[in-house]
Amino acid sequence: MKVLVTGGLGFIGSHICLELLSNNFEVLVVDSLINSNSLVIDNINKIVSQNKLNVRKMRIYEADLRDECKLIDIFREHSIKESSIGAVIHCAGLKSVNDSVGSPIDYWANNVGGTIKLIKVMEEFGCNTIIFSSSATIYGVGDGGLINENATINPINPYGQTKAAVERFLKDVFYSGNQKWKIVNLRYFNPTGAHKSGLIGESPKGLANNIFPIISKVALKKKDKLKIFGNNWDTKDGTGVRDYIHVMDLAEGHILALKYLNNVKEEFLNINLGNGIGTSVLELIKTYQESNNVEIPFEFVGRRKGDFGHVVADNSKAISLLKWKPKRSIKDMCKDSWRWNLLYPNGYV
Ligand code: NAD
Ligand code: UD1
Q: Which of 220, 239, 274, 346 could pair with 281 in a Cys bridge, judged by C-beta atoms 3.0 to 4.6 Å apart?
C-alpha cells in the first residue's frame, strides 16, 4: 500500500516513515521543510541499509500543503488504480504553543488551512483514509486522574485550538455522507526519545520550550540549569507529572491504526496515544542522570502560565482497539534521546 506522510521529515513523521518502510509500505512524503532538514532523508536511508531492509525508496516532495496545485500534481502522478495513494498520515503543521500565541494567523492558516486543502484533494482523488496527528493539548483538563477520549475539549492556546478545529472539521467531513471516510485522530501525549540508532530525533529549528530538548541542552552544558515550573502541584513530589511516550511506540501506533482502518468500511475515531504512566519532573531528571551519567542542575521557579499539574492518558482504547502496547520505558527515552543528542548536538544544522 502507498502511504503519503505529510510532515514526514519532522520529528514524529521521520520515525513514522521508517516504521512504514519496515512494514513494507511504500512511502511518499510532502514536507515544506519549514521545521525540518533534508538531511533526515539520508539518515532514514542509512538506517534502512544498516538494517538490510528490503524496501522501496521513499519519494520526497518539497511542498507546502497549502499549494493545492502541487498537491493535485502529486495525487495525479499516483492516480493509476493499483498504485494510487491508499492513505494519508497527516503530521504536517506548526507545533509551538508559545509561537502560536503571537502568530495565530500563521497557525490557523497552516494547521487548519493546510488540512482543508489536503482533504479537498484527497476527496477529489478518492483517497478517504487519514490518520491525523492530534494532541492531548486539546483537553481542558489535567489535574485529576487518567484522561480518556471523552474528556472535555477545551484548548487554552491557539495551537490547541487549531488541533481541536481540525478534529471538528474531520468529523463534519465524515458525517457529510458523501464518501466512505476512515478517519483516526491520534491524540499524542508527550512524544520524546529518538530512534535507537541515534540518527534521527527531534531537531527543532526555533527555540524549544518542552522539557526534553531543554534537559538535553543542560546535559550538553549549553545551558546552566533546568528551571522547574512549580514545586507545589498536587502531585507525588509537587512537580508537574506527564505521560512521556517514546516516539517509536508512537510510530508503531500509526501502523496499527492504519492496519485497523484497512479492515473496516468507514470509521471515525479519537484515540489517545500515551503510556498511561505519569512521571514527575524530578523523576525524569533522576532517570536521565542515572541512565546517561550526566548532571542536570535545576532550580525551582514559579508555575508556567497555562500549565497543568497532572496530564496522563487513559490509553485503554488504543490497547483494546488497535492492539497497541507501548514497549519502551522512560529510561529508554532518556538513553535514546541522549544518543541522538551526542551524535547531533545541534540537530541537523
Ligand atoms: P515537526 O515540526 O518536527 O514536524 C512537522 C513537519 O511538518 C516539519 O517537517 C515541517 O517542515 C512540516 N510542515 C509544517 N507545515 C507544513 C505545511 N504547511 N506543508 C508541508 N509541510 C509542513 O513536529 P513533530 O513534533 O514531528 O509533530 C508532528 C505533528 O504532531 C504536528 O502536527 C504536531 O502538532 C503534532 N503533535 C506533536 C507533539 C509533540 O510534542 N512533538 C505532540 C502532539 C501533537
Ligand atoms: C506542552 C504544551 C502543550 C503541548 C506540549 C507538546 C504548555 C503549557 N503546554 O505540554 O500544549 O501539546 O507541550 O508540544 O506549553 N517543565 C519544566 N521546565 C521547563 C519545561 C517544562 O519544569 O523548562 C515541566 C512542565 O511544567 C511540565 C513538564 O515539564 O510539568 C513537561 O512540559 P512540556 O515538555 O512543555 O510539555 P507539556 O507541558 O505537557
A: 239
15 band by pLDDT with thresholds 50, 70 and 90: very high
Q: Strand, helix or coil at 244?
A: strand
Q: Which three cell numbers stand for residue 282?
A: 524530578
With cell 498537491, the residue in question is: 71
Report the predicted TM-score, pTM, of the whole model to 2 decimal places.
0.97
Coil, helix or strand for 345?
Answer: coil
Would you name the residues annotated as active-site residues?
159
Pocket of ligand 2 contains residue 231 by CB under 6 Å: no
Nearest CA to ligand 2 atom 3: 137
pLDDT value, residue 93 = 98
Q: Cα–Cα–Cα angle for 148, 149, 155, nearest 5°?
A: 100
Residues 6+ positions from 192 with CB-CB distance below 8 Å: 202, 212, 244, 245, 246, 247, 333, 337
Specify the residue with its C-alpha closest to ligand 1, atom 9. 10
- With a 6 Å cutoff on the Cβ, whether 306 touches ligand 2 is yes
252 CA to middle of ligand 2, Å?
24
